[in-house]
Design brief:
Length: 78
């Protein structure tokens, strides 16, 4: 557990050095890490702002349905 403590201390030190305008982004990212895995993937994408203004249906298509389609195609199910 010494490694965990060392990592936590390094994170704390780095957070202290982050500019105020980026603290909210960091908080949103940390919150996303605390969510169940499936929600985290979407949260991280939203955090990075990559798809912040994309239609919810299209976002779901890319994050949930597309990977499933790719997996089915790779198995020859389509």
């Amino acid at each position: 557990m010494v490694a965990d403590e060392k990592i936590r201390n390094e994170i704390k030190d780095r957070v202290e050095k982050i500019s105020s305008d980026k603290l909210n982004n960091l908080l949103e990212y940390v919150k996303a890490l605390e969510l169940p895995e499936k929600q985290t993937d979407n949260g991280v994408l939203r955090y990075f702002g990559v798809w912040s203004d994309i239609d919810e249906d299209l976002f779901e298509e890319f994050t949930e349905r597309l990977p499933e389609k790719i997996l089915q195609e790779s198995k020859g199910n389509i």
